Amino acid sequence: MTERIEAKISVEDEKASIDSESEIIESSKNDELMKEGTQSIPQIDYSDFREESQLLSVKGLIDRELSEPYSIYTYRYFIYTWPHLCFFARHGDKYVGVIVCKLEPHGGLKRGYIAMLAVDGAYRRLKIGTTLTEKAIDTMVLGEADEIVLETELTNRPALRLYDSLGFIREKRLKRYYLNGADALRLKLFLKEPIYEEEDVD
Ligand SMILES: CC(C)(COP(=O)(O)OP(=O)(O)OC[C@H]1O[C@@H](n2cnc3c(N)ncnc32)[C@H](O)[C@@H]1OP(=O)(O)O)[C@@H](O)C(=O)NCCC(=O)NCCS
Predict the structure, then answer these.
(1) Does 158 contact ligand 1 (Cβ within 6 A)?
(2) Which has the minimum average pLDDT: 30-44, 57-71, 82-96, 153-167?
(3) Residue 144 pLDDT greater than 50, yes or no
(4) Whose CA is nearest to atom 32 of ligand 1?
(5) Neighbour tally for 78: CB within 10 Å
(6) What is the pLDDT of residues 64-114, one digit of tens each?
(7) How much is the pLDDT for 112?
(8) Measuring CA to CA, which residue among 110, 111, 90, 114 is closest to residue 100?
(9) Lowest-confidence segment of 7-16, 91-100, 177-186, 192-201 by average pLDDT
(10) pLDDT score recorded for residue 59
(11) Residue of minimum CA distance from atom 36 in ligand 1
């Protein structure tokens, strides 16, 4: 396991430097579907975890889209422990997106964790990633989560923008977090107002 060295960063400086880079040239609004002549937005169905075959259907997608692939045992750990925190997006019978999360006690709080989020390259910029994340957040709110955290590569602009738009803040930089040596950012979404104790005024 790579040593994970945490270093605090100036959240605003980091945001500014990433946002000032040139725009990502990745396809806007679903280029591949357009090429096929399907101009309309495809009908995407969302579901939670029901059976192992769903897992096998998305394993390839996650392995392809995430820089750090996981073993089937890791997927099973998450999905069978927190099946209600795993959501799939389907176009017809094709699985085109997935989010995998957990929710457990952490330092006196209830902390949600987004372990994996991936959308098929041909189905990007259709708000599938946003919808999957919103479903996970809503379910964690029902589960009384205090906060949700995740890590993503420092240079992963699509993911950073998506999470920014949902209210996540950039909490810290994790040096050489990934096995490929890349740095990560830890993002956090606060779900509850802090409780301040009133001081006695005598
Ligand atoms: C990150 C990812 C899940 C986004 O999925 P998606 O369904 O395309 O995202 P959405 O359509 O919901 O996009 C929401 C917002 O994120 C931002 N965004 C998404 N893709 C972007 C891109 N390529 N460039 C710039 N901003 C992007 C935009 O602000 C977008 O809103 P807009 O389309 O109204 O401008 C997808 O790109 C992916 O699977 N990437 C590879 C795996 C990965 O990085 N996972 C996250 C690891 S934590």
Answers:
(1) yes
(2) 30-44
(3) yes
(4) 125
(5) 20
(6) 888 777 888 898 999 999 999 999 999 999 999 999 999 999 999 999 999
(7) 98
(8) 114
(9) 7-16
(10) 86
(11) 119
Q: Whose CA is nearest to atom 5 of ligand 1?
A: 129
d(CA 42, CA 46): 13
Lookup: tokens for 75: 């997927």
**pLDDT of amino acid 8:** 41
* Angle between the N-to-C axes of helices 11-19 and 157-165, in degrees from 0 to 180, rounded to the nearest 10: 120
Contact between 179 and 171 under an 8 Å Cβ cutoff? The reply is no
Alpha helices in the chain (DSSP H): 11-19, 31-35, 52-65, 72-81, 128-142, 157-165
CATH tag for 45-190 (out of 1.20.1250.20, 3.40.630.30, 1.10.150.320, 3.40.710.10)? 3.40.630.30
- Asked if residues 148 and 112 have their Cβ atoms less than 8 Å apart, the reply is yes
Instruction: Name the percent of the chain lying above pLDDT 90.
Output: 61
Query: Distance, CA 52 to ligand 1 centroid (Å)?
Result: 27
Q: Where are the domains of the chain?
A: 45-190
Measured in residues, the chain has a length of: 202
